[in-house]
Amino acid sequence: MNIRIENIVSKKLVGKRTMMSYSNNKTFDLWRSFMLKRKEIQNITNTDLYSIQIYPPDFFESFNPGAEFEKWAAIEVTNCDSIPEDLEPFILPGGSYAVSLYKGAASAATDTFQYILGTWLQKSNFTLDNRPHFEILGEKYKNEDPDSEEEIWIPIKTNQLVRI
Fold first, then answer.
1. CATH code for the domain defined by 3-158
2. Tell me: the pLDDT tens digits for 57-101?
3. E-assigned strands of the chain?
């Protein structure tokens, strides 16, 4: 699996959010309600969609499928001056990310996430950063199609050695 490191500046997004857990997954409902409003969003920079997860700081220390996190369905905009009703602005913070291209059905991506967060991260010079995780769903994204493609973005920071 190829993983590249990307440094990005903050991005302005407009979207919809919900609280959910992996055992009470509301992703389908979130995206359905967002897509109904998508055509009303002005100042869109491109057609890429962002699936964003904001986890509590200790979320990955002891994984619990019932633990809640915030999930967003969003799109990048040049400004947030005119936001349709029922949607909200979101600023995606800049920083370093481990990025991997995932090919396959969206529901089968668990092994890829486990590899990045477990195996790759443990062997790298990075640690998980407390910023949003996200996936970019571009032109080749087809949800459950085996030929679907999306980019997985995991927030990272450089390991800091502490000297005493």
1. 3.20.80.10
2. 989 888 889 999 999 999 999 999 989 999 999 999 999 999 999
3. 3-8, 11-20, 44-54, 69-77, 88-92, 95-103, 126-128, 133-137, 149-158
